[in-house]
Specification:
Blueprint: E1 3-8, H1 12-23, E2 30-33, E3 76-79, H2 88-91, H3 93-112, E4 117-119, H4 124-131, E5 134-136, E6 140-143, H5 145-160, E7 165-167, E8 172-178, E9 181-186, E10 189-198, H6 205-215, E11 219-220, E12 224-233, H7 234-244, E13 249-252, E14 259-266, E15 270-276, E16 279-285, E17 296-305, H8 314-329, E18 333-336, H9 337-341, H10 348-352, E19 363-364, H11 373-389, E20 399-407, E21 411-412, E22 425-427, H12 438-454
Parallel strand pairs: 1-2, 1-10, 2-7, 10-22, 18-19
Antiparallel strand pairs: 3-6, 4-6, 5-13, 8-9, 9-10, 11-21, 12-17, 12-20, 13-14, 14-17, 15-16, 18-20
Length: about 450
């Protein structure tokens, strides 16, 4: 065998698997194959001057490369079982929390010292939410910020690069089981290993599905999250963000009894583009460095959709909505809340006259032509509900960017060790359909690495 362990993907799951395996100092030959570039060479061409919008690079530097899609996120690590995935269903609730706490210790020791750990416990805000039909989920939140998150990843990479064989700009074309292990076809080259860990993230969902089909691994339909990114003056949400930073709030709509939730809150942050499988969607970032702060706060409002027979392609449904947005707006569409509720599109003049200055150059338009009515009705109802705890949220000049879509892989059938029915093949992180966050994905990588180390001599 060329390697003892091959890891596909250098996102959070793959990085923390490699970290724990290398740290054990057991003389293992570890290889990591990554579609994107190393961290220092990851750069989005959008500069706001010559390149103002997504040019659909063959491999998106925001989504792929060392650190995965989380490398340029705002670096929020939520220590909780209430959201972020269902890792606890496989490893147990207490163990899942312990794994996430261990991940936090690693981040802090690699450049994250001095960053704040927030908590929703015993919060008066939780009571205020309940009084207004909203539910604040419990969590501890370590906010690294996009800048410190980069430093942490850089330090971890520097520690690993002499212990682990990294292959960047390398697409895995095929995974096959061979006697005693697995073989990967990478750019015409064949790499072999005793064990294989797959950690290709959400952007690798289609690839992961094809691997499961080829290898006869059972998968189950998962959900897709569809919604918008809200941007408004930071002062409106300061009473909450100063205390909690990340407020995960869930609301059940009166009209359809659908659940709408806040996601990825970025105080004083920026709204950004994402390119997933050639589709441009929207996301948000924020920085720990106060010199990079803006006057705005942004967060997502998402509605989860599950499908059953005869339609099971949740990701395909989300992609079709995002493609419609790209078709009408050439990418991301932005609309004033006041224009949306009045049933009119936003124009360049209305956006220019807006009291909120957009942090993303998006096309003014009409989100009601893109997002299904039921989902959009729920989002509007949620904005009015949030206005009760953060007055000003439902102002006319609040900006809505669309479409924000969170794709989830078909949930792969894995056991308590996150091992598939094909012995020695593990699926971790968001491509498993089990984790949906930085903390859960990282924890899953630690869990698999420890299992492999415990069974080396078995």
């Amino acid at each position: 065998m060329d390697y003892d362990i091959l890891i596909i993907g250098a996102g959070p799951g793959g990085i923390f698997s490699a970290y724990e395996l290398a740290k054990a100092d057991r003389g293992l030959k570890i290889g990591v194959v990554e579609l994107g570039r190393e961290l220092s060479k990851r750069k989005c061409p959008i500069d706001g001057k010559k390149v103002k919008s997504c040019i659909r690079c063959p491999v998106c530097s925001i989504m792929s490369g060392f650190g995965g899609a989380g490398a340029f996120s705002d670096g929020k690590y939520n220590i909780t079982n209430q959201f972020g995935g269902t890792l606890y269903e496989h490893v147990g609730k207490q163990h899942a929390i312990e794994l996430m706490q261990y991940v936090d210790e690693i981040n802090v020791s690699h450049g994250g010292e001095g960053t704040k750990l927030y908590s929703t416990a015993n919060s008066q805000i939780k009571r205020v939410c309940l009084e207004n039909g909203l539910h604040l989920l419990d969590a501890q939140v370590r906010h690294l910020g996009t800048d410190i998150n980069y430093v942490v990843l850089e330090n971890i990479y520097n520690e690993l690069k002499d212990k682990v064989d990294f292959r960047f700009n390398s697409a895995v074309e095929r995974v096959e089981r061979i006697e005693g292990g697995y073989a990967l076809t990478v750019g015409g080259e064949r790499l072999t290993a005793k064990k294989c860990i797959v950690s290709v993230g959400r952007s690798g969902s289609k690839w992961m599905e094809s691997v499961c089909n080829d290898m006869g691994i059972t998968t189950h339909s998962n959900r897709v999250d569809i919604g918008v990114r809200v941007e408004l003056p930071a002062d409106i949400w300061t009473p909450l963000t100063d205390k909690l930073y990340e407020s995960k709030i869930v609301y059940r709509t009166e009209k359809f009894e659908d659940l709408v939730r806040t996601f990825c809150m970025n105080p004083h942050g920026v709204v950004v583009n994402e390119n997933t499988n050639g589709i441009v969607t929207v996301n948000g970032h924020s920085y720990e460095d106060k010199t990079k702060h803006t006057e705005n706060t942004n967060f997502a409002l998402l509605v989860s959709k599950h499908f059953s027979e005869p339609f099971k392609d949740s990701n395909g449904y989300g992609e079709s909505i995002a493609r419609l947005s790209n078709m009408l707006g050439g990418g991301v569409i932005v609309q004033r809340f006041g224009d949306l509720v009045r049933g009119r599109r936003s124009t360049e003049k209305r956006i220019a006259d807006c009291f909120v200055t957009p942090t993303l150059a998006a096309t003014p338009g009409d989100l009601s032509l893109v997002i299904p009515k039921r989902i959009l009705d729920g989002i509007i109802e949620m904005i009015y509900a949030l206005d009760k705890i953060a007055p000003g949220t439902a102002n006319d000049d609040t900006l809505l960017y669309g479409v924000e879509v969170k794709f989830y892989n078909m949930e792969v059938e894995i056991d308590e060790n996150l091992e598939t029915t094909s012995p020695g093949l593990y699926v971790i992180g968001d491509c498993s359909g089990v984790t949906h966050s930085l903390s859960h994905a990282s924890a899953s990588g630690i869990h698999v690495a420890r299992h492999i180390l415990e069974n080396l001599d078995a």
